[in-house]
Amino acid sequence: MTKRDFITAEEYGADAVDRILDLAVKVKQGKVLGGLERKVMANVFLDPSLRTRTSFETAMFLHGGHAVVLEPGRSSWTWETESGAVMDKDTVEHIREAAAVLGRYADVVGIRSFPRGSDWNVAREDHIVRDFARFCEKPVVNLESARRHPCQQLADTLTLREKLGDTKGKRFVLLWSWHPKPLPTAVPASAALAAAHNGMEIVIARPEGYELDPEDTALIRKITQERGGGFVHIMDDPDEAMASADAVYVKSWGSLKYFGHPEEEKAHRAGLRDWRMTEQRLRSTRGGKAAVMHCLPVRRNVEIDDAVLDGPSSAVIDEAENRLHVQRALLLDMIGKL
Amino acid sequence: MTKRDFITAEEYGADAVDRILDLAVKVKQGKVLGGLERKVMANVFLDPSLRTRTSFETAMFLHGGHAVVLEPGRSSWTWETESGAVMDKDTVEHIREAAAVLGRYADVVGIRSFPRGSDWNVAREDHIVRDFARFCEKPVVNLESARRHPCQQLADTLTLREKLGDTKGKRFVLLWSWHPKPLPTAVPASAALAAAHNGMEIVIARPEGYELDPEDTALIRKITQERGGGFVHIMDDPDEAMASADAVYVKSWGSLKYFGHPEEEKAHRAGLRDWRMTEQRLRSTRGGKAAVMHCLPVRRNVEIDDAVLDGPSSAVIDEAENRLHVQRALLLDMIGKL
Amino acid sequence: MTKRDFITAEEYGADAVDRILDLAVKVKQGKVLGGLERKVMANVFLDPSLRTRTSFETAMFLHGGHAVVLEPGRSSWTWETESGAVMDKDTVEHIREAAAVLGRYADVVGIRSFPRGSDWNVAREDHIVRDFARFCEKPVVNLESARRHPCQQLADTLTLREKLGDTKGKRFVLLWSWHPKPLPTAVPASAALAAAHNGMEIVIARPEGYELDPEDTALIRKITQERGGGFVHIMDDPDEAMASADAVYVKSWGSLKYFGHPEEEKAHRAGLRDWRMTEQRLRSTRGGKAAVMHCLPVRRNVEIDDAVLDGPSSAVIDEAENRLHVQRALLLDMIGKL
Prior knowledge:
The first copy, chain A, has 338 residues and is of the alpha/beta class. The first copy, chain A, has helices at residues 9-12, 14-28, 51-62, 95-105, 120-123, 127-135, 150-164, 186-197, 214-226, 238-242, 262-269, 279-283, 306-309, 316-335, and strands at 40-45, 66-70, 79-80, 93-94, 108-112, 140-142, 171-176, 201-205, 232-235, 247-251, 291-293. The radius of gyration of chain A is 20 Å and the shape is globular.
């Protein structure tokens, strides 16, 4: 039996993603009970969480299973993540042992690890999540790594389908927004991949210098083409980007050129506070009512204005709810007894 | 379907409280199984907890459900609680989104938020808990706010009935005690309301300057009258207060005049260390054996002496146990399938 | 009904230990389902944990029960542990109340409390865990105290049997190792007691000054004799100790002479970094393939080299897995409905 990790949706497979989303629809309708009896998920959070933690714990419970939550460095031991390390400093447990042990206790193991360090060429390899998966004998779920947030991607794929019906050829705008800190690119890359999988036309609107990782952009282009979405447009004017948008995914991320150097990046982004989803910009979208999306947590009146978040176009709470349903389907697909 | 929050017992309704307490008696006797199958409670602790967290988690489990525990700012994101905030500082998630999202994952949501800030006129509005309830589509349980601890109130109402039998007209003394820090008034107000609901005669013994919120005192008087308890006496001598007491509820709280200014209050309370429940004071109560109550955690030999806590009059562990049973009944009343 | 705590394996009884281990074998084979329905375990961690927390939570779940996790001073109130304390400082809740209350909510209560303070004559009494058990009306499980880690001991007893078959007379080496900090002696004492219970010949290899508590050494000798294991040898040469070893239990611990004075001990252990389990030392064991054991977390390349941990002789992950199975059996023995 080969184990199948869910590190990225593309590695798990496009067909599998569609199968999971079909199951998620049934799950959401209350048509699927049980399937995870006596199953245990162990979720490791090297970074904080609200939705991921609550939705996975709820998902396991609703189908008869149980999720354990671990927070190394807080309630548990601080982890070493480098191979060959001589552990005579502050780290107490190596990820090799942690992964192997949790693989003995649980049937599926989740891990969240945001990008660390100051070298994007290292961070982009997602070695913590991938090493963890390698050392764990049970399937591993990526709860957000440096490069991907694949559970969010599943939820966004489903939400786009719910909001737009037939998504083919519709226009998806990934809108960079200002934020006081440089955030990871995992969510914007995953969101664009969700739209690409849905066969949408994609616009990435960001200021000069805020390109996604080139390999991710290439993958977005490739999948867009394969799934019939046509082109990926890169723009640097947030107002122009709104035209004909069917969905606007608002998200801030840091410049990879300054990765790990937040102070230097600060100057670079100083003039960019106008990159924000406003009511006026919403009016410029198709029919003035594009679906406005965000993975949450969102900085109100910084990334998206109150009027938009509290208005009828906001899809952000539905996206969060869909995390629960796609994850129920994912778990049933990975370890379920259906 | 209108949702019914449990923010205060008085808003939930006196009849409902009696109904819950009747059910709690049956629950405690082991006569009620199940009723919360596939139900999820999400509990948010903005402040620490032992009893509340454990008793709700146990309550959900014993009836087939599950409780998720969240601690914003620790294991989860730090929350913004002000409407209209421009979130470019330290808060990462607005309570609006948190409440809305948890309302999608859970069937009932609990929140604990002790009073914050330095203006009682603001804190007394309990706007965090009330906003949370407004933005959450599922029923919300107050796990202790600035003004009330209604689950403790239910437990105390039941404990008084268990200890005193017919509570009507019996004498309940709320005894202020010294403590190194100014504590919230939620528990003393709720405890007096428990006694008022039980139709007891009420004595509030506190030093000059330690009045409860006038609106709460007025409500205690009103309910005492309605439920046949007669008078509410305010006293400033702890020894005099003991006479004929059937129950003594020991509790420290801060002077609302100095709310949010603990250093200024310190001088004020400096001479008050004698306000403490001693064995000698217990001897002055009715028959020398009034039930001695406290919500816990209690500062031993500061609020109540060892000899009292470890003697036969102490009801504090029974109160804590009753938290479990009244909450089982409350949950069954709010979301149960009985 | 007298309650039976599991503070040390020797107090629980040698026969009971054998009964639990027999049950653990069946449990591990998947032959025992249920038995803990509607049962609650409350686990209190005054110190961090990964295996203990996860394995007990999983154990309870797999048999139909539920475990609650509490962390006083983090998610819960800071505890006072001294009798008669006047609690006007930083501690908020006395262990007496905490133990009594948890005993009302749960069916079994676990507590972890590493040694504290700077006086071994005090710490060695394990008064926190023993007081907790005294004040709690339900059976208490020691999740690691100053003197013992009895759940680890059960797991190690089972692992030795699995790895060596008939353990009688086989050679067990407890190998002290260098570590940047002085660690507790609970695990090495418990590991040697596991081997003693298995009737093994025991070698304790440690540098001069790193004796275990004399009472523990005497108990190891006594049980070794009773169970037919012959002698306990104390050695101060790590290389010599390897000869004919069937199992090597690597573990660092602090010198009890310097207990609570880590800075003074530092000088003492400065020259001892060579006390480490290397591939070369493994080659000197019986057949070059003794089982290498460790309770985890292990400092790689400090306590044990990568080559040993990642080689075929390593038993450390099996030990950790066995924590789950022995604890399932322990819980069934303590509170199960089989």
